[in-house]
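Journal club prep — side note

Before the paper discussion, L.F. wants everyone to see what a predicted structure for a comparable chain looks like in token form. Sequence:
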Amino acid sequence: MLTTLAIGRQVTAQTAIAHSIYLIGDAGKDTLPGPALRMLGQELKNDPNSTVIFLGDNVYQRGLEGKDGSEKYRVASLKLLAQLSQTENHKGSVYWLPGNHDWKAGKWQGLETVKVEAAFVEQYYKEHADIVNKNTQVFLPKEGFPGPVHAVFADSVHLIALDIQWWLQSQLGHRTPRTEGMTRKLMTRKFLADLDSLLGLATAKNGTVLLAAHHPLYSNGHHGASKQPLRFMVNWVPPFQLFGLIGLNRMLVQDIPQPRYKRIRNRILKVMDKYEGVIYVSGHDHNLQYFRKGPNHHLVSGAGSKRSSLGRDRNRARFMDDRNYGFMRLDLMTDGTRQVHVFGHVSGKEFHSFVLE
């Protein structure tokens, strides 16, 4: 289904922009910059002091795989360079988050693959660019840990980065890192306590709070679909659970209704919704969506190099589009308002805008 849905107040009169934040996810398909990346590069030329956040799935299909010098590694590195090149002359901040495909699509040695990608990205900026944060934090979280990791930019913007793949990656023989002496259960408990603490501190400062991860908490796309009865059978019917153990569950676990994803998603929401005005930004589904849920906002910007159809509007989106390769720009205005501008390849420019309220 090709669709664009827009509900709510659009941007009209505009005060001055205090700072712009570009949100682009799932941009790792092409070895040369595709239409969304080219649009991003052009925007950054006119907006040199803005911030860019790459929202994961930076290399399809299996991350920065292969040994240095191999053909697999060469092709995968070209996909990263297609994105890195668009920010090479940027003077603001740039942040990168991992997605499930950067973890080798949930396969064996995913932890090693995401570590190699992080080192590649950070080394590139040290050698080829002059971004504000080149010598501090660029790839978040680090070393395959789930976070939360806190970074501040533009004086009053608090970025809290998470990696939900940490909960989804662990399968038979698939390593995820742990703090010494801590079980998986204790690490999850500490993660939620740290998230609560960081959100409390950030919201108390009256700045803008971005909670960023590759995986969305709401979506009307492919990863939000129920996919029953297959999901039920793989998870709960003994004869079919074997298929989950041998790999089918790696595919289904990337969907919000999957039990493991659903559990950590609900626990994050329980913490997040104690606060007001938090903006959760993500990719994962290859389209553009906005949800206003409770006291907070949810932006899905995963159309960086792929497109996938939206399903029925089960989550009551205020905006959604699956026609475009594109991205979003969040403008923080001097009067305190926050405006979102949506860019798509069909028109080759901004095609929609709305106010977060």
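L.F.'s comment for the group: The first helix runs from residue 35 to 46. Keep this in mind when we get to the figures.
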